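Q: I'm writing up a methods section and want to include an example of the input and output format. Could you take the sequence below and give the corresponding predicted structure tokens, formatted cleanly so I can copy it straight into the document?
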Amino acid sequence: MKNLLAIAVIMLLASCSSVEIEKDRILIFSETKGFRHSSIEVGKEVLTKLCEEKGFSADTTENSSVMTPENLKQYAAVVFLSTTGDIFNEEEQAAFEGYIKNGGGLVGIHSATDTEYDWPWYGKLIGGYFESHPKQQEATIQILDRNHPSTKHLPAEWVKFDEWYNYKNLNPEVTVLANLDESSYEGGKNGANHPIAWYQEYDGGKMFYTGLGHTEASFSNPDFLQHVWGGIEYVME
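A: Here is the clean output for your methods example:
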């Protein structure tokens, strides 16, 4: 009888250990080696609070040394908050690739596309690179997919003031969620097909990107915050 009980306990412990513990931490990463956006500070504060309201812990850092396999495995998603420039060494790049390949999720905000131009894998993951931008101004965003968690709350045409990026090396494999109407503002260079938010499954993981978020005011805009949180939700699915 004792042997049977011991076997049952061992089997129960084995079954419990095989269940993956749900991750409840999000990393907000905002290191810059190029232009630094003034919105980063308020963005870190607001996004940390937003994560906590949604039941997640949030860590913030501007130190790429956190990009190790051991550290990254605790995060349900990593947010690149207006990162710029060449921020990772080869070991950190390998660690982040491993994180995505193991099912991790990346959310890129604004100048996440102005980051790591010499890392082709990242270019495909983030979906394109920053090329230029005109002056900050109001523009009309055409929402192409209103079923995605990042856009389902938005009107078919979303008018917003921001800094509107032109892009190069766009990855045709991404699914575009929102398109800029270049007739609604000055300085667009991508033409009729000017994506400003997109997502994809890539190399084992998921990513979501929004070109919005240059201004500090964006982080007090409920529609923008829900847009970002919907992207976080998607990459954690």
